Amino acid sequence: MAWIDMNFNSRVLELNTSVNVFLPDQIKPGEKFKILYLLHGYMGDYTDWLRFSSLERYLWEHRLMVVMPSNNNSYYTDMDRGLDYFTYMTEELPQILHGYFPISEKREDHFIAGLSMGGFGALKIGLHKQDYFSKAASLSGAVDLEHIRTITEGTPRHKLFIATFGD
Question: Which of 33, 125, 141, 147 lies in the 20 to 30 Å Cα band around 113?
């Protein structure tokens, strides 16, 4: 299994960003990979799945490419007062990955999953891009955003939610 730490300049985000990629060993000529996007949670980053899970051990038996992008605390959303992470995730990143790697073009070979904030992002992206993703999974997803109303006004977390989702 190969692990690639990609760093590149995002045209959409207008900054350098990072993505971890797992690839199966011994790529066969003409082989096209199934792809799983794994999204990190709030206060996490693109290394969380490598550091805090047994992902590599589980992937040994599967011919699956796994992509773990950095999205800061964006909720994988085009932020009201911030960067366009939804556009990055749904347009730019897939285009970049398909340019570098032999990825299947078949919808049934594209999956997305995430933890907590990443679970919210996986559902949002999976439901909005059903033409690209065949399956989406939310692991303990932060999908009940009503709790935002209970966060103390003026705290850093409250300011982030306002920047992300608006007033």
Answer: 147
